[in-house]
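Our working data are protein records whose layout never changes between entries. Instead of coordinates, the fold is spelled out as a row of discrete tokens. Here is such a record, shown just as it appears in the course material:
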Amino acid sequence: MRLPFSRPRPVHDTVVSAVTPLTSAMVRLTLTGPTLPALAFDQPTQWAELTVAGPAGAQVSRAYTVRHHRPGPGEADFDVVLHGRGPFARWAAAARPGEPVRIAGPRGRLRAPEGADHLLLVADESAQPAALALLAALPPGFPVLALLETGHPQDTLPCGTAADATVHWLPRAGTGRRKGELLAAAVRDAALPPGRGAAWVAGEAGAVTAVRRHLLGERGLAREDVQAKGYWKAGHRGGAEQ
């Protein structure tokens, strides 16, 4: 039973129209459907729940960032990290055009701090679609430092933005570091510009907690200026599907 004050999520029945490899560990699913022109997507970092038929026909649902929305042709892009363990990642690795996908959403509101002089973006692979969408939406000339962790040096993505952005890709390969550890170290070593700073941090939950604690404690950022979201938890069954 749906309570009278609950808000149902809009549902769109779509099919896969294209599967595009982006890196060695990420693919882009382009979905199309007759109702997608009406997808209520109006902010970067918004997410939707995607539902597909998983192993043995069981439904599998995971939340992913809306990377692009093209109302004209009724298309939306979702970038999926292929971790290899979770059922959605296994489905995405083998997805082909024509397969059905149900979209519920989108959801999420970006809490933009008023009066910030610069922005720090911190993300691992799971949060890179949201981080890059936010980077692309920043106003021209706005100072931003982006620290983006990835698996291998070749696993970088285009960072189209009009902002005054400095982007550092942090590959783990050969470092012996676990996911998230490079981000925490890079934030501690980062030289932030003067003025009021804001931060958007997302990825593995433990790393996000460590970065948030550092920014609030040692860097002195205000709580309202730090948005931190754990997209997945190391050691949790199902891996990082976000």
Notes: The longest strand covers residues 11-23. The chain has four helices and twelve strands. The CA atoms of residues 37 and 71 lie 4 Å apart.
